[in-house]
Amino acid sequence: MADTTLAGKADSEADPPRRSGRLAGFLHRSETARGYLLISPTLAIMTVGIIMPFLILLVLSFWTRQGFGFDTTPTFNNYIRVWTEPIFGALLQRSFWISGIATVATVLLCYPMAYFVAFHVHRNKMLWIILMTLPFWTSYLLRIFAWKVILGYEGVINSGFMAMGWIQAPLEFLLYSQTAVIITLAHAWAAFAILPLYVSLEKIDKSLLEAATDLGDGPVARFLRVTLPLSMPGVIAACFLIFIPTTGDYVTPALLGGPDGAMIGNFIQLQFGAVNNWPMGATLSIVLMLWIAAIALVFLFLTRRAQARIT
Amino acid sequence: MSDGTYIKRPNRPLQVYAVIFLIVLYVPVLFIPLFSFNDSIYVRFPLEGWTLKWYGELWQREPVWNALWNSVRVGVVVAVISTILGVIAARAITRYRMPGKSALVTFIMMPLVIPGIIFGVALLVLLSRMGIPLTLYTVGLGHLIVCLPFAVATLLPRFEGFDPSMEEASADLGENGWWTFWRVTFPMVFPGVVASLLLTFTISFDEFIMAFFLTGTDPTLPMYIWGQLRFPQEFPSVLALSSLILFVSFILVFLAQWIGRIGLDETKKS
């Protein structure tokens, strides 16, 4: 028990019988080692579930399909095909376009809401936040399905408007289109925008706003010169948190996209399903990952710049 | 908070906007239960009349019960394991100085952002190369990866708001590590644990994309629904089933959020 206070804190982790061993002694002394030991089961699962699959996926992307098996001679053919055949580039471009529009729409629509809760709600803030984020935690599939019910050829909007006599024939652009995918994505990912926006707005020192008012800024100038720049990190985080996951979305374009709204995720799924070209699917996944990594770096850079401007 | 002066002035347009926002957020989902009570095989206006027959039909379907049982089994196991892993991860992250900690946290949080389809196909490839057949266990592994970030994110604030001197006091008073954990640490993080269990269960219960790639012959509930979407005549019973799932999910998540936050605000205040 002599070394109990070695780390400056009373030891509450290591159980007494193991203290005699040399390994235990080392663990007892080194905070880092103990921390890593404690977190190791979690890391082990993450390794089995994320790192190993990614390595195999990377290996597979250099193989070629051969009948029902694989030709395991490494080759760049899949990557060359993705680079040269226009369909892949077009699909990637469309995916980024659709999720880009959805991202901008979501952030623009959610900003006033986050602003309202951060500055104008004084009681039950927690309830408001729970209310705004609650749908997000429930079944993604069913929320997308709900939009199919609404936008369908005989869906809520079309049949409702026709029953009211507002339109004569169903509006066909609603279902199986990029518009449908964008609307649905914007709705489904709202919570991912609300939370970072709210956090960054809530952090703003209210006295800065009063200072701006005292110095003669009107509400608009005050917003543009104080609130908006200070909330920029939240805006960037919101864009990142929506744009990245939606580029690879599968369910929404599958249920609502139709041929015009198909995205890269659907194409990847096809390679593992009907087309049965797993190496190609692996290559597409890796290419998508590389794009995501590149975009993440851009966002990181933007965040750094926004932070630097504030402080 | 009390120093806001002009900010206290209510802003009418913003209030109206907030109300509309909430309505738009919730109404689409509400159409599912609305049409599940509609006495027509077609999902369209005008409504034909109220009925419970779609729910009754659901009750007699063997595959629905099987899928429910599969989902519950996977959900419970995933919730327990991911919460345990979340507790030890949150504990390690907050309690010890570890180099590379922020990289570690980023790594754990990765599944939050990276499209699920990539994890799904990557796991599928790994399992098939290793010759492991697709079963509920593989679905569970996929769900574990998806749920872990949420467990850690729920539990981290608990451990961050936790004063280490409490544990030191307990140790000084003669408790050993084990009892200190059970009598001091655990009660203080308990609400976070409950919230994490509820949340991860719901996420696993509702999860689709991982199950889509990793399900063998036993479908989970979302997979069962996906299979039924091809048949227009099944639409009303899918709506009834979806309503029930949404109802349960909303209650569980609301409880999780409520339990997860209430105590947190109290610890911050004190």
Reconstruct the topology from this structure.
The complex is a heterodimer of chains A (311) and B (270).
Chain A: H1 22-29, H2 31-60, E1 64-66, E2 69-71, H3 77-84, H4 86-119, H5 125-137, H6 140-151, H7 156-164, H8 178-188, H9 190-202, H10 206-214, H11 219-247, H12 251-257, H13 264-272, H14 278-310
Antiparallel strand pairs in A: 1-2
Helix pairs in contact in A: 1-2, 3-4, 4-8, 4-9, 4-11, 5-9, 6-8, 6-12, 8-12, 9-11, 10-11, 11-14, 13-14
Chain B: H1 12-36, H2 53-59, H3 62-95, H4 101-113, H5 116-129, H6 136-160, H7 164-172, H8 177-206, H9 209-214, H10 221-228, H11 235-269
Based on CA atoms alone, the radius of gyration of chain B comes out at: 23 Å
- Please compute the radius of gyration of chain A using only Cα atoms: 26 Å
Oligomer: heterodimer
Mean pLDDT across every amino acid position of chain A: 86
According to CATH, the homologous superfamily of chain B is MetI-like
* Shape category of chain A: globular
The CATH topology label of chain A is MetI-like fold
End-to-end CA span of chain A: 48 Å
According to DSSP, the number of beta strands of chain A is 2
Order of helices and strands of chain B: HHHHHHHHHHH
Q: How would you describe this protein?
A:
The complex is a heterodimer of chains A (about 300) and B (about 270). Chain A has about 300 residues and is mostly helical. Chain A has helices at about 20-30, 30-60, 75-85, 85-120, 125-135, 140-150, 155-165, 180-190, 190-200, 205-215, 220-245, 250-255, 265-270, 280-310, and strands at about 65, 70. Chain A has a single domain (about 85-310), classed as Orthogonal Bundle (MetI-like fold), CATH 1.10.3720. Chain A has 14 helices and 2 strands; from the N terminus they run H-H-E-E-H-H-H-H-H-H-H-H-H-H-H-H. By secondary structure, chain B is mainly alpha-helical. The longest helix of chain B is centred in the last third of the chain and has 35 residues, at about 235-270. The radius of gyration of chain B is 23 Å and the shape is globular. At the A-B interface, helix 2, helix 4, helix 5, helix 6 and helix 7 of A face helix 1, helix 3, helix 4, helix 5 and helix 6 of B.
